[in-house]
Amino acid sequence: MVSATESVGPFTLLRLERGELEPGVPGQFFMLEAPGRVLPRPMSLCQAPHGELAFLIDPIGPGTRALCALRIGEAIHVLGPLGNGFDLDLSRPLLVAGGIGIAPMPYLAAALGDPPAILGFRTEHHAEAAGLLPGAEIVVEPRLVTELLQDDPGDVLACGPEPMLEAVRRRVPRAQLAWEARMACGYGACYGCVVEIDGRYRRLCVDGPVVRDAA
Amino acid sequence: MQLDAFVTKTVTPQAREGNPPPRVVETESGMLNSIGLQNPGIDAFARESLPRISELGVPIWVSVGGFSAHDYADVCERLDGEASVEVIELNLSCPNVEGAPETAAELVAAARAATTKPLYAKLSPATWDVAESARAVAAAGADGLSLVNTIRGLALDATARRPQLARGAGGYSGPALRPIALACVHACARAVALPIVGMGGVTSGDDVLDFLAAGASAVALGTILFADPFAASRIRAELGDAVLPALALSEHEIHGLVGHSASRRVVSAE
Ligand SMILES: Cc1cc2nc3c(=O)[nH]c(=O)nc-3n(C[C@H](O)[C@H](O)[C@H](O)COP(=O)(O)OP(=O)(O)OC[C@H]3O[C@@H](n4cnc5c(N)ncnc54)[C@H](O)[C@@H]3O)c2cc1C
Ligand SMILES: Cc1cc2nc3c(=O)[nH]c(=O)nc-3n(C[C@H](O)[C@H](O)[C@H](O)COP(=O)(O)O)c2cc1C
Ligand code: FES
Question: What ipTM, to 2 d.p.?
């Protein structure tokens, strides 16, 4: 059941009554029914206010637009928490996010005691979402998050578009990265979400979104 | 959640990595997939997956695929001694891989010679005369029909107009497939005396009644389980006393909910 919706720059923060669902580990995700669509959509948990689950949604297509159009009191199916979250046993965490990759960061920051964060956005309008993570350093394109990475950045936890994640990985090979893939089920049944890891196709909904080193 | 059967994802003789991603895309009234029969191969399946699926405590239907009659015979022979396998379903119709050169009937005959377990032939809706295929596989020794597999479809992205799936076309499933599947069930039920497991876009108790009326003796769930993993319980409740469906999931993909209306039994496939 939708308890509130808020605009955050171009994004919508969708707050749902939590019911029986656990919020899970930061970086885990939920499958949200997108009204009128055949398949549900994967969404990272953004915040876990008391009795609620909040999701930050970028309306880029029919499914996300349907989710952003939900009204207070409407009910949708929600499945989760799903997948692999971030490993939180760290000494010097640094959060790095690009665009809608900011979505899991507020919940992650709360779990880690508000560590430093670097956020990158396409436009000033998108950068309004940075209000969800007070104290973060912000860059707007053409500047990139990797420009702010120090030589010894600490334990990096990152979420964002693939080119950003690749760039972060080149700078910080040990960074924990939350990847995306197209999903149908989100719970390991369809084999639709595979990504190539060490030459094998692995299901991102089971072995990710935060992929642990196979080694 | 009780279930009367559980259908596995297709198993082939050797392990298969499947097709490159993206492998799934939603379309207006269904979805396309090009998984490409990713599976661990029959040996690892029998060693690791079967014992796990057996813990569900429901009859297991194993879907078998391959690239030659020899492949089908090979996997069937291997499964023949597995007590937990109740039925072997022959996937004769995957739109996402190059099929075997033999006809469906020849593949059924090869499988028939390799096992005494009940054999269900899973047919494609993409044929001019599915009843003719049904008669052929019945003559070759099939004990039942699974109708239908996905039908090939293509989705393009809105800017570059390039295929959204890495492989190009994929298998179309979901609500759009339902009338096509119903027509196949209807035609085959009049052509052969075999029990039919109907599937294709089932989302509700109403849909199940359609399939039973068209001549299916059981109904299977696929795509709906992605949006609603508990669809079988819901559908059973919607059906009330009309029939008694059930559902199962596995770590593999899902493909059905089946019931033999005569025995008031409904099977749901993984
Ligand atoms: C684990 C996970 C967590 C996610 N968390 C969030 C979140 O918190 N907030 C949020 O707004 N979005 C999130 N996403 C992405 C979101 O699920 C997709 O944007 C959404 O499914 C698109 O659906 P649509 O119908 O609106 O657009 P579509 O028409 O399906 O797609 C529009 C465009 O986005 C691309 N796309 C579609 N699905 C995905 C996907 N899953 N990953 C990458 N690109 C995709 C398509 O190629 C297309 O170009 C997450 C994805 C994953 C896998
Ligand atoms: C992601 C996905 C994977 C599938 N894999 C198999 C498979 O391995 N073997 C098979 O016989 N059918 C497979 N199918 C087909 C389904 O079993 C079913 O025949 C078809 O999807 C129609 O039913 P539905 O509309 O309820 O999904 C698959 C379907 C989907 C959507
Ligand atoms: S989304 Fe279905 S297996 Fe990952």
Answer: 0.91
